[in-house]
Amino acid sequence: MSFKTKPIxxxxxxxxxxxxxxxxMAIAHPHILIDAAVxxxxxxxxxxxxxxxxxHYTWQFDENFSLLLLxxxxxxxxxxxxxxxxxxxxxxxxxxxxxxxxxxHISNGDTKISPNDAPTVQATFKDNRLTLEFDLTLPESxxxxxxxxxxxxxxxxxTAFFVKKDSGYQLVGDDIESCAIYxxxxxxxxxxxxxxLENAFNDDLTxxxxxxxxxxxxxxKCG
Length: 223
Hints:
By secondary structure, the protein is of the alpha+beta class. The protein has one domain (7-222). The chain contains 6 helices and 11 strands. A hairpin with a 5-residue loop joins strand 1 and strand 2. It starts with 6 loop residues before the first helix and ends with a strand.
């Protein structure tokens, strides 16, 4: 399980969402849906090399999972979340994601880079949806070469991420006018997310290894 929830309430939300579907079908389907946006912070060194310093994430959770969390953290049961409740929700919800390196897969050739822990998480709750925003830094600045690759996915496909192609990935930094994001490899069935999810739901498969099939590999080219 990728994000922290209370077991009883979590099982209840799965029952509401998937009814009495066979177990093997439910296993192969993502149970948490996130609309994500990723901002890459880039700097240009004195020798003209471009490097990735950090990433900024915005994750907006689906309504079902958001309401599940509302029930967990609305201590006074007023259907509202006070700032302290939001802060606690954000920190505790991300505990599972932290163990999985925030679903962030970064590589430069054969070298895999693990991001540092997110120091803070900003949580907001609006229109029945939880949104988390946070920054991830890298152990050291990463040169942007032709072999750089970024992918956001849950290996077990328990959580599915959707990033808008036109605005979901952004670059920020000084003197980066020559830099652009490109899609190195497209996830399977990406042209029709609905069909992809239906196929995953009905196939007799386990979730293990499925996440990468639906994820896009992103590259950054400068100069």
